[in-house]
Amino acid sequence: MAHDLLIVGTGPAGLMTAERAAEYGLNTLVLERRKAVTDSLMGELVTMNALKLLRVKPGSEYIGNKYKAIVGESLDTGAKISVGEGLLGDSFILDEDRCQELMRNRAEANGTEFRYKSKVASVIKERAQVVGVRYNGADQARANLTVGADGSFSRVSETAGFTHPKWLLSYGIRWKLENCKGVDADTAYFYVGKDIGLGYLWLYPRSESEVNLGIGRVPSSKKNWENLPSLIDVLKKYKKILPGLRNSKIAAQNGGAVPCAGLIPKFADAGVALVGNAAGQVSSIVGGGVTTCFHAGTVLARHAKRAVEENDFSKNSLMKYEREYRRSKLAWSIQNTGKGFWAISKYARFNDPIKAAETVLSQLDAKTLNALVQGQAGVSDIMTLLRDFMPIVLTIGKGYLKSIAVSGF
Ligand SMILES: Cc1cc2nc3c(=O)[nH]c(=O)nc-3n(C[C@H](O)[C@H](O)[C@H](O)COP(=O)(O)OP(=O)(O)OC[C@H]3O[C@@H](n4cnc5c(N)ncnc54)[C@H](O)[C@@H]3O)c2cc1C
User: Fold this and answer.
1) Whose CA is closest to 308, among 5, 67, 2?
2) Residue with the nearest Cα to atom 17 of ligand 1?
């Protein structure tokens, strides 16, 4: 084979897999359909866990900003909850471009080859084993292990034969704004409201004059989606309304889709493995994928090294990656929040999720909100939610049962 490892995609999952695999000395090729690593969106709000996996320091140039507070607010009623410094722990916004370049540089320094403008169409299979990919029409690349790090609409996943029932996607758009005035750079904001639907609007300041304004929304049904203003229209509206943004300039726009239904049923097979969004490795409630992608990339790279040492790229060998990943704490959280989100989206088909969000927002305690936002809700947080929101849980349960009855899921 030409390469040990062939990675499709330079999102956080692909870059982390490449960086670690290169350190292990694996002969690695990366294919990316865009022109540069910095063209892809990497996500931004992370905790200390992401920095540890990325091996960067909190005060370094790779960090765009650090927050002292997080505020959750209803755009309709003004109901508000604030998580202050005592509870917040560490919450950072990454300097996306620098982090992407850092991972690419580390991989290149250890011999990894990056080929841009390389759009993968399908995997190549020989005797039920994936042995590489076809890209840009007639081109082929071959490797012992092909990694699908090509996001929510993964060609590797689809053509290798992986399935994803219950695939629930959150669609998001993010603007980088400049020329803002007097923004509180120490606070990150999350907003819910009837314009937003099942999701949230966020405002992450990079400084007093630079802000990332974004929106993510799950289409609970076609009808619900069509009744809502478009994502761009919501951004335009709140760019005029939110403090300090009125005369700001849009410096960049990016977007994408994030899976919210938990891990897909199977993400490793003979000669192939999926990582990141492609495998559903995203914290479902908030759509946080950076830390989970970094973590998954490190696990996969380690198993790629083992497979190379053992010269074994069989299904049994690569399933060891999937099994180890599924046993991790992050996978546990992804699966549980995925199930919860699936129930909520069903509920939202027939009921008003905003009412539930409003009630939650007006009663939720700061510690639990913080745990949810950070994607770190543990058993005690879930128990608190169940205790404090039993009426809502029961309502959601009723809506969920109704959804099941109607849709047959
Ligand atoms: C608007 C928005 C904001 C977000 N904010 C946050 C946040 O604040 N915190 C957080 O933790 N997470 C956030 N996320 C989620 C996070 O960005 C994703 O979970 C993460 O980027 C997934 O990484 P990935 O590497 O699996 O896939 P992706 O980032 O989707 O990368 C896939 C890569 O594969 C390439 N590709 C796709 N198809 C092909 C092909 N056929 N051939 C070759 N290349 C291909 C793409 O160009 C891309 O570079 C956000 C997501 C969105 C959309």
Assistant:
1) 5
2) 43
371 with 288: CB under 8 angstroms?
Answer: no
- pLDDT at residue 298 tops 80: yes
Q: Tell me if 41 CB under 6 Å of ligand 1.
A: yes
Q: Residue 310 C-alpha to ligand 1 middle, in angstroms?
A: 31
Q: Is the CB of 64 under 6 A from ligand 1?
A: no
Distance 45 CA to ligand 1 centre (A): 14
pLDDT single digits (tens) 42-91: 887 888 889 999 999 999 999 999 999 888 888 888 888 887 777 667 88
Q: 183 with 208: CB under 8 angstroms? A: yes
Ligand 1 centroid, distance to 42 Cα (angstroms): 6
Query: Is the per-residue pLDDT at 30 higher than 60?
Result: yes
- pLDDT of 188 over the 70 cut: yes
Report whether residue 134 contacts ligand 1, using a CB cutoff of 6 Å: no
Angle between helices 329-350 and 353-363 (to 10 degrees): 130
What domains are there in the chain, each with its CATH number? 3-45+97-167+263-332 (3.50.50.60), 69-93+169-259 (3.30.9.10), 335-407 (no CATH)
Q: Exposed e or buried b for every residue in 367-405, given b needs 16+ CB within 10 A?
A: ebbbbbbbbbbeeebbebbeeebeebbebbeebbeebee
Per-residue exposure over 164-187, b if at least 16 CB sit within 10 Å of its own CB, e if not: bebebbbbbbbbbbeebeebbbeb
Cβ proximity of 337 and 280 under 8 Å: no
Separation of CA 261 from chain center: 12
pLDDT greater than 50 at residue 288: yes
Q: Which residue has the higher pLDDT, 248 or 190?
A: 248
- State the average pLDDT for the chain: 85
Q: Is 255 in the pocket of ligand 1 (CB under 6 A)?
A: yes
CA of 2 to the centre of ligand 1 (A): 27
Pocket test for ligand 1, best of 41, 99, 170, 196 (most atoms within 8 A of CB): 41
pLDDT digits (tens, 9 = 90+) for 274-287: 999 999 998 866 66
| C-alpha span between 300 and 398 (Å, rounded) | 40
Q: Is the CB of 282 under 6 A from ligand 1?
A: yes
Q: 365 pLDDT band (50/70/90 cuts)?
A: low
Atom of ligand 1 nearest to the CA of 172: 1
